[in-house]
Structures are given as C-alpha cells and as structure tokens.
## 1
Amino acid sequence: MKKIEIQQRVLQNGKPLDLDKFTWDEKTNTFSSKENNLVLDFNGVTNCTFNTGSDCIFKTCSNCIFKTGDSCTFKIRGNCTFNTGDNSICLFNKVRFFMDKKITYKTLTHSNEKGYILKRDNEDYFHYENETNEIVYVDGIVSKILSKKGNVLKVVNEGEVQESYIVSNGALYAHGNSIKEAKASLIYKISDRNTSEYKHFTLNTLVTFEEAVIMYRKITGSCESQTKVFAEANKFKSKKTIQEIIKITECQYNNNLLVQFFNK
C-alpha cells in the first residue's frame, strides 16, 4: 500500500493523520509515528509493524508487531507480539488481558469461552517473565494455575493473592473460593440452548434441582445471575414435577416460555 492509502486507515481526533506526522515503509509494512491518540484500522492487512506513542487503538489481522507507549488498546487476530507501556489492553476475539510493561505476548488465532490454556511459541504454557505457570482464561478472568487434579484447578486470579478453584464438567468451567462453591456454580452454566432432551417430558416428569436449573435456563434463556439468585432462595432436595417447577417459578423471567413449552 502507498502512504496515501495508509493515511485513510489512521485517524487522529476523527481525521486522517497528516502525512508529515508518520512514515510508512512499503517494503517492511512498518508504520511509525510519535503521535498519541491514534486510531489505526489495519483489518485485512497482515505482517505489519507499528511504532507509536500512547493512548492508541489498533485493529489488525495477524503477524503484527507493536511497540507503543502507555494505555493502548488492541483488537487483533493471531500471532502478534507486543512490547507496550503500562495499562495496555488487548482484545483477542472478545478476550481481554491487561498487559504489564516489558512483557511480550503472543496472541491466539481464537479464544474459547469454555476456558483456554494460553500458549506461546511451541510451548504448552504461557509465561510471565521468570515464571513457568500455565495461565487459563475462564469467564473473563485470567488465572495462574497452581495445581491440577482431575477436573479441578487450584488457581490465583489476576490481581488477587488468595487461592481459589476452577472446576469443569468437560465442557464448562466455573470459579469458586472452594471446590464445593465452584461445583455449585457449575450447576448454573449451560453450553447451548438445545431443548430437544425435554421434548418427551410431561407435566408429571420428575427432575432434580440441578436438572431443573439447567432446563429452566435452556428453555427460558434466563441468564446465569438471574437464575442463581432465585434458585438458591428456592432450593429443593427431593425431585419435583415439571408442573411444580412451573408453579415455583411463576412471575420469574420468561416463565411463560416454560409454560408454553410443556403445554403445546
């Protein structure tokens, strides 16, 4: 691309950056500017290098290198290297990491909402400087793994010093200050809205508390927090019929969808 084309991809205060305020090396795809507060949109362009000031926002594809000042934000895809100032934020397909000064990060081509062990280069763990702990990303929280046992991870969450736990059922993950708490939280997770398993249920079908929670979320689309607050206040030990679940959840979010589902 020519410099004049690059100018249309770099804004400052809502306007294309003046040509004399940046350089563009066509051979190396290197953008350089000492300016702050830039918005750079290089979507569709790979193998670029960026040298900028602070408070910049980047949108790029893969194989890019960033050398910036403080407080920059990146929304990128795959195999990029960062050497930033303090308080920089990186968004990898909706995944957010707060990056520390002088730490180089490799991105992933995708993230996984079920939890993803981050990798750098050909290694099977993700480093902080002078550390070899694995890092896991679950529910928007970056955690350092201290130990693993079966489906339980003992971790320390980013920005915390207290140890906590993450448990999995093979498809979903949940946090807790104790293993018991994490397992309880897992009940409120759902991986999809597939309701086909309930097609043969009748109003007299008996379900456990755990089954009722998952069923309600799938059929009604109730969010995790909404369901958890109500369910914990109405927890039951013995099985209940669908008809009883409908009665218990009267006036709750989308209860009418539950009624409609079992009265077709």
## 2
Amino acid sequence: MSYYVVDTNVAIVANRKSEQASTDCTLSCINKIKEFNNNQHILVLDNLWLIISEYQNKLSQTGQPGIGDAFLKWVLTNQANPNRCQTVKITKTSIDSFEEFPQDREDLEKFDRSDRKFVAVALAHPHKPTILNAVDSDWKIFELPLKEIGINLEFLCPELYANS
C-alpha cells in the first residue's frame, strides 16, 4: 500500500478546470484519483483539517460534476477510516508556517507558503508519503531541496517540466 499527500491541483486538473493541463495530464490525474477510490493508496491528511479545508474551497462536496469533486466526497467519507486515510498531527507556528517545516533552510525560504502544509504532513508521517503534484511549478522549482529533507514528489504531468 502506498501513502500519498495530494496537492489540491491534482483534483482541480481531474475536474478539467486547469488551462495548462494537457489531455494526458488530465487523464493522469483522473487515473491516480481512481486508484484511491479503488483502495490502492492511503491518503495522508492533517489533524487541523487544513488540507480538507483547501479541498472544500476548490471542489464540490457533493461529488459532482467532476472526478476531483468525487475525490473530495471520498475524502470526507473516508477521512476517519485508517485503511483509506491517515491523519498526522502538525503544529502551526504562524498562518502558513509549521513546526514540521524546516525553518533553517534558506533554499526553502521562498517555497509557496500555502503548500507548506503538504510538506509538514509528509514529514510528520512515519512513512514519509510521496506528494502528488499536477501543474504547480513550485514543486519542480524546489524539488532538490525538498528531496534533501526527505520529501518525495510524483509529477503527474511531467511534460510541463520537460525543459526545466
């Protein structure tokens, strides 16, 4: 069983709501989300509901009309089921800063503050889950320093970063 933290942009792309996403990119996101529905992976979330809240701000809780919306409904249905979702404790130190996010790394100072919760969650979980990304370039820009602190990334739309 694989453990993942899923950036919100994956579900947005699966909903066909991203202009920069190619057809292949969209299908890749849809297929990965379907793997969660088929119990192939465990989703890792935070105890403060920051990730779920972000999902709720960008997706429809009814599960309609897109695959990303269905993912949110799946998350809300399964968030307390440890066979499908696991929750880790993270500690906020300020609005978008967390005890679990390395503060001593100059090479991560400019990392997107709104994405730090995903890193904090991955670092707090004992299995160090992979973070899924579709179209957010920040993950690619900071891939090396993130890898150095133990963060693994999976790029569902690698064609966007072919020249980086």
